[in-house]
Amino acid sequence: MNIMPKIILTLACASLSQNIFASEQVTIATDATFPPFESVDDTGKLIGYDIELAEEICKAAKIDCKIINAAWDGMIPGLINRKYDALISQLTVTEPRRKIMAFSDIYQRPVFRFVAKKDAITDTSPAGMKGKVIAVQTGTPMDAYITKNYKQSNIKRYDGGSAPYLDLIASRADVHMSYEAQIIHSFLKKDNGQGFELVGPRLTGKDAPEFGEGVAIAINKNNSALLKKINLGLEKVRAEGILDTLDKKYFSAE
């Protein structure tokens, strides 16, 4: 019996399963509740740093991309189940996540901070915040860090990245932890952020493993072809100075 045709067919199917997503329109999901990285404007359009970056990467890599808004708690399961081909939503790279997702090269290394009413919090240590209400977005590095270290605090978790600020303003939370850039540019620089301030030390992945290695685009682990294309696009965007331009546009001190 000649088994060569079966072998060839098996190899062809394996190759197809590895590259099928890269040859079709690529669906990129984002949780658009985290300005200035991703949000929805008054017309319903997705805007923000990550949105523009994804568009530039797709353009540079010549990928037909469709960026959609998705609920945070369904994004990672959706990627694993191939509902989405990739995720861009300030996703930090951690060892637990590497086990279930592939990641592009890192494009940002965020700093994490607490924010509270001015002069309300002078000690952000676990002992200093005993009994305090800490607001965090669920399933994030901030959630993991707070859960591990602040066992004597009351932790309130939220599905979206903007919701914790509402409780902070209404005094239903004493303090919130998020990305420093997000706190500054989406809250402290806005009218409703007046009377609040950053508190505590600047924290990074060097301070705690929960904060991860940096921020990257997540891709289904079985889609190596798309991973390669996205990395090539990111490399071009970085080399052409587009990444620096986006940094200045969204995070300028002015």
What is the structure about, briefly put?
The chain has helices at 4-19, 49-61, 72-80, 95-98, 141-149, 163-169, 180-188, 224-239, 242-251; strands spanning 26-30, 39-40, 46-47, 65-69, 86-92, 102-103, 112-117, 133-137, 154-158, 175-179, 196-203, 215-219. With 254 residues, the protein is α/β, with parallel strands linked by helices.
Description:
The chain has about 250 residues and is α/β, with parallel strands linked by helices. The protein folds into two domains: about 140 residues, D-Maltodextrin-Binding Protein, domain 2 (3-Layer(aba) Sandwich), CATH 3.40.190; about 100 residues, Periplasmic binding protein-like II (D-Maltodextrin-Binding Protein, domain 2), CATH 3.40.190.10. The chain has nine helices and twelve strands. Strands 4-1-5-12-6 form a five-stranded mixed beta sheet, sandwiched between helices. The protein has a five-stranded mixed beta sheet with strand order 9-8-10-7-11, with helices on both faces. A two-stranded antiparallel sheet has the order 2-3. A hairpin with a 5-residue loop joins strand 2 and strand 3. Helix 2 packs across helix 8 and helix 2 packs antiparallel against helix 9. It is globular. The N terminus is likely disordered.
Largest sheet: 5 strands, mixed
Low-confidence region ranges: 1-22
Overall 3D shape: globular
Structural class: alpha/beta
**C-alpha termini separation:** 75 Å
Radius of gyration: 20 Å
Number of helical regions: 9
> Which whole number gives the mean pLDDT?
91
Number of domains: 2
How much helix is in the residues? 25-40%
Provide the CATH superfamily of the largest domain.
Periplasmic binding protein-like II
Task: Going across the biggest sheet, name each strand in turn.
Answer: 4-1-5-12-6
Q: State the CATH class of the largest domain.
A: Alpha Beta
